[in-house]
Amino acid sequence: MEYFIIIISAIFINNIILSQFLGICPFLGVSGKSSTALGMSGAVMFVMTIATLVTYLIQHFVLEPFGITFLQTVAYILVIASLVQMVEIILKKVSPAMYQALGVFLPLITTNCAILGVALLVIQKDFNLIESVVFAAASAFGFGLAIVLFAGLRERMEFSELPEGMKGVPAALVVAGILSMAFMGFAGMV
Amino acid sequence: MKKQIDNRENFLKGFIRENPVFSLLLGLCPALGVTTTAINGLGMGLATTFVLLMSNVVIALIKNLIPDKVRIPSFIVIIASFVTIVDLVMAGYLPALHAQLGLFIPLIVVNCIVLGRAEAFASKNKVLASAVDALGMGFGFAFALTLLGAVRELLGSLSLFGVKLIPGDGLLVFVLAPGAFIALGFLVALVNWYKREEEKKGKSKKVAA
After folding, report:
1. What is the pLDDT of residue B5?
2. Roughly what angle, to the nearest 10 degrees, separates helices A72-94 and B71-93?
3. Cα–Cα dist A38/A36, whole Å
4. Segment B147-194, tens digit of pLDDT
5. Could you give the C-alpha distances from B68 to B63, B65, B129, in angstroms and in order?
6. Residue B94: helix, strand or coil by DSSP?
7. Is residue B35 within 8 Å of B43, Cβ to Cβ?
8. Distance of CA B197 to the CA centre of its chain
């Protein structure tokens, strides 16, 4: 039941994009088409879960025992950057098909603040290992849900007539606001 | 004389024309996440400016010592070190603001503006030019965040910089998440409109000349 609450709240109530404002860059950047949005969310789901697992272990077995938690930011970003690189290399060897689908998005993920954000959030929330991984996977799913929904909306919007200045990003931001309002309806569910 | 004009141009471009938030659409996560009030926006903007300035200067100083292949990781480590400094100093001296900005302070590391300027400008230019560039971009960012924060605070709670201007309740939605997106959307539209008007003016001036 506890895990169920974590999952529901990470996906709907505290959706990582629409209510926590993490990962806005890819949210606006790759949401032009549904297919790229799907690819990006796949890559994020993959990396976010692994990154949270690894940074959790580093926090509890390296930083805390040695009393160097002030190095948290430096350590995490290095781990995430090298992890992304490693995932890229392994994926290329093990599953070329998956690499084809996710490859272009992987380098972009290093500077996706959602990854570092979730890794830091699980430490702040004092989750244990399994809770952390569940939270990361659910957050990543929430990311995917928001970005795919948004891509669908943007595809439709291309055919609508807008005032000159609102075309493109401004209109997309307003639509994101409305989507975020819709997600607010989930608040109080858990 | 020419140099001075260059620096001035370099500094001013960050405000509207190449404003990181309104024009380049970089660093939107903190721009949306912390701007519930104008003060929060200003605090975040200044913290980012400090990191930008210090990392740009350091990178411009040691750019010749860094092997090209490990350029990006080295930049990230430099940036992360300054972010840690800001994080600790803020937690020590401004605990209230630090608590408000929370997660977004460590996240300055992954702010695309900082790494973007390091890669695009500081790694190719001299120290002074890099510092001016960082200040211009940083103040542009702070300006954008303060403006967005002011708009949200004014509409959301009818106050500005914590001072109540009009009695009564505002539109709560602007303090909450959806308002951030909508307010930014309209501000970007406004800046687009301003830039187009400027372009038109520039063209007509050229024609007249």
Report:
1. 53
2. 150
3. 5
4. 999 998 888 888 887 777 777 777 878 888 888 889 998 988 888 888
5. 9, 9, 21
6. coil
7. no
8. 24
**Any A CB within 8 A of B107 CB:** yes
DSSP state for residue A165 in the 8-state scheme: G
Tokens of B68: 């090209």
ipTM greater than 0.85: no
pLDDT, residue A1, reads 67
Question: What DSSP state is assigned to residue B15?
Answer: T
Cα(B172)–Cα(A118) distance, rounded to whole angstroms?
Answer: 27
Give the tokens for residue A87: 């995932």
Are the Cβ atoms of A174 and B180 closer than 8 angstroms?
no
Residues of chain A with pLDDT under 70: 1, 103-104, 190
Q: State whether residue A170 sits within 8 Å of chain B by CB.
A: yes
Sorted by sequence, the CB contacts under 8 Å of residue A7 that are 6+ apart come out as: A134, A138
**CA–CA dist B176, B170 (Å, integer):** 12
The reply to whether B109 touches chain A by the CB within 8 Å rule is yes
The structure's pTM equals 0.83
Please judge whether B84 and A74 are an interchain contact, meaning their C-beta atoms are less than 8 angstroms apart.
yes
Q: What are the sequence ranges of the domains in chain A?
A: 16-184
In chain B, helix, strand, coil percent, each to 5? 75, 0, 20
pLDDT of res. B1: 37
Q: Does B118 touch chain A (CB under 8 A)?
A: no
Q: Report chain B residues whose CB lies below 8 A from the CB of A111.
A: 110, 112, 115
